[in-house]
Amino acid sequence: MNAQLPKPSADVVYRDLADEVVLVHLATNRIYSLSPTGGRFWALLASGWDRDRIEQQLLEEFEVEPAELQHEIDGLVESLAKEGLVT
Q: Which residues pair with residue 14 across a beta bridge?
């Protein structure tokens, strides 16, 4: 059973640039760069997808084992939360 994902903060905007996604936290003016996989996760999250649907999509798009993907998502969500990028 998967935990529910937080939502992107209203204070964050993002842009897809070539091989990365750049997040800007408007309240702090801090800039963050995500890898292609992290950026794809962010785009799906920002589109309102739930965790199961995001995981399924990422498994189709990237060569990764399901358990590794779940671990990576958990770590990314934790990092995003620490920076106030998700609520």
A: 23
